[in-house]
Amino acid sequence: MKPSSSLVLIPLGVSLASTVAYNGSCHDHKPMQLRLAYAGSTGMHVSWNTFSRIEQPRVHFGECIDHLDQQASSNISVTYRTSTTYNNHVKLGGLKPNTKYYYQPECSNSTTPFTFVTSRAAGDHAPFTAAVVVDMGTMGSLGLSTSAGTGGAVPLKPGENNTIESLESMLHGFDFLWHPGDIAHADYWLKESIQGYLPNFSVADGVKTYERILNAFYDEMTPITSTKPYMVGPGDHEANCDNGGTSDLVHNITYTDSICMPGQTNFTGYRNHFRMPSVESNGLGNFWYSFDHGMTHFIQLDTETDLGHGLIGPDEVGGSEHEDSGPFGSKMNQQTTWLARDLALVDRSKTPWIVVSGHRPWYISAKNKSSSVCLDCQDVFEPLFLNHSVDLVLSGHVHAYERNAPLYNYQIDANELENPTYPWYITNGAAGHYDGLDSLVKPLKNYSRFALDTVYGWSRLTFHNVTHLTHEFVASGNGSVLDTATLRKDHSQLRGWYSEH
Ligand SMILES: *[C@@H]1O[C@H](CO)[C@@H](O)[C@H](O)[C@H]1NC(C)=O
Ligand SMILES: *[C@@H]1O[C@H](CO)[C@@H](O)[C@H](O)[C@H]1NC(C)=O
Ligand SMILES: *[C@@H]1O[C@H](CO)[C@@H](O)[C@H](O)[C@H]1NC(C)=O
Ligand SMILES: *[C@@H]1O[C@H](CO)[C@@H](O)[C@H](O)[C@H]1NC(C)=O
Ligand SMILES: *[C@@H]1O[C@H](CO)[C@@H](O)[C@H](O)[C@H]1NC(C)=O
Ligand SMILES: *[C@@H]1O[C@H](CO)[C@@H](O)[C@H](O)[C@H]1NC(C)=O
Ligand SMILES: *[C@@H]1O[C@H](CO)[C@@H](O)[C@H](O)[C@H]1NC(C)=O
Ligand SMILES: *[C@@H]1O[C@H](CO)[C@@H](O)[C@H](O)[C@H]1NC(C)=O
Ligand SMILES: *[C@@H]1O[C@H](CO)[C@@H](O)[C@H](O)[C@H]1NC(C)=O
Ligand SMILES: *[C@@H]1O[C@H](CO)[C@@H](O)[C@H](O)[C@H]1NC(C)=O
Ligand SMILES: *[C@@H]1O[C@H](CO)[C@@H](O)[C@H](O)[C@H]1NC(C)=O
Ligand SMILES: *[C@@H]1O[C@H](CO)[C@@H](O)[C@H](O)[C@H]1NC(C)=O
Ligand SMILES: [Fe+2]
Ligand SMILES: [Fe+2]
């Protein structure tokens, strides 16, 4: 490291406030891959990567573009085996809710500060919109593009936008982006190599290829995640490097996670890259947590590990992929105990809406096998959703879109979307990645209300007011809305709804 510059680059017109002076070298400390996450309505996590460790990562911020008069720092600059970068995490506190801030991580080479808006305080019933993607991988030459390898599926059509581009083109149309699992899909390095999509396959180079795909994803996401909070949940593709087992049929070789380096297993990259608001919600790391935004209480669950019921260890995993990951909790049934308490604490007069997401679905027109349908998840979560009148349950994992009726134990709520008692279920795992889309099993289940398994897209949730919530499926290719449905809920019937409403 050479002590080349002692100041961060300051945009023209921005005062050289003493607070931005950096007492060290910015060489190798240039921030990249910026990611925000809500940390309560008065906080924001700012995360970014650098090529070397920072002694004390620091963020300068303020309400005026030319006056970043506040700063926050931490000592969190972490890496792991197989990673080429360090993950820096700083929590900014003492912020005003629903307020725009300008910020710069120290050593930023951006000529203008980045911006974010803090979340609306619980009880603020102004309308808002959120974007949701599940199963979204790296786009471009290392992932989903207009071509695919031998046996590869559903490349983009020429001229179609991928989901990252689509989100970027509608950046002003949502407050935050929610991504409940299957992020980047760096573990597709193996399939992409075997299928000849990536050149010069060798298992020995796997670590480098995996890391390139991962870095490409965070780079591609930066225009979105540097300005919109990016709330994430765990999916199976965060667990290992072999995509849960991949076969090279031509050479009759089946790869297992025995080829994975320690840094590529047990959600290691996922744990290092993010800081979700689990401290604020008594959750656990990036695995389960909740947050409020205005009139909605959002809950992220972990369908991959820690399902409880005495199953500790690999068998506790919801799916059949033998991820050999977790558990992350130290107590029996820690996640469900937390969920019951988190739900019980919701003040429906402030946040009448409760929206839950978990990576794996249980209501989906797919084969009834544990790799697609998580019956263990249903077993532990569904009764709690019903008892606490959860409004909407989102999932992915199956790479298709299916909007279902409100359901409980396979029974359809006779009210459908007109003030149902049962939670509404939507699966949208169609954001896109190298492996394409899955075909839904026809005939569709009797609870299916709209299904699409040939188009990439994302979900847009609009909370109009305390009674109306609209879900839309946005086709990434051209931005058109291919499905719209509105749930009406008379939340005033619920426990905890105070008389002033
Ligand atoms: C800069 O670093 C030096 C040596 O580590 C230290 O003595 C000095 O107090 C630091 N200055 C500031 C402004 O932090
Ligand atoms: C800033 O530095 C990072 C890391 O070297 C690099 O990826 C990025 O392109 C640079 N950005 C600008 C605007 O120069
Ligand atoms: C980081 O700071 C925390 C408290 O601020 C402290 O407990 C911890 O030991 C520090 N870690 C390192 C590596 O310095
Ligand atoms: C595709 O995305 C680009 C950039 O993200 C945007 O400018 C353009 O309007 C989008 N096109 C369509 C048809 O959505
Ligand atoms: C792959 O190998 C070929 C032939 O040896 C070489 O020309 C090419 O540059 C290599 N490509 C990469 C990306 O390493
Ligand atoms: C493939 O490999 C397995 C064991 O690794 C072997 O039992 C089987 O005969 C092989 N199949 C072919 C077609 O070579
Ligand atoms: C995964 O990491 C957690 C937390 O460090 C640890 O408790 C657990 O034993 C690990 N699981 C496996 C299978 O390595
Ligand atoms: C799916 O399979 C599981 C286990 O084989 C079984 O318990 C369950 O009843 C089946 N569900 C449906 C809807 O067929
Ligand atoms: C749901 O509520 C019913 C009736 O109050 C109760 O018997 C049941 O134990 C509750 N289930 C859960 C998972 O809380
Ligand atoms: C839908 O199918 C389930 C079994 O999967 C059955 O229990 C239920 O009665 C059916 N509902 C209707 C309305 O047909
Ligand atoms: C709530 O929003 C819906 C959809 O925009 C609208 O039809 C309804 O009138 C609104 N209700 C109130 C009380 O404003
Ligand atoms: C947009 O894309 C969808 C899905 O590919 C297609 O069905 C629709 O016709 C397109 N709409 C327009 C206006 O091109
Ligand atoms: Fe997936
Ligand atoms: Fe998945």
UniProtKB/TrEMBL annotation:
Keywords: Glycoprotein, Hydrolase, Signal. GO terms for molecular function: acid phosphatase activity; metal ion binding. Residues 423-484 form the Purple acid phosphatase C-terminal domain. Residues 1-21 form the signal peptide. It comes from the Eukaryota. Residues 31-118 form the Purple acid phosphatase N-terminal domain. Its EC number is 3.1.3.2. This is Purple acid phosphatase. It comes from Cladosporium halotolerans.
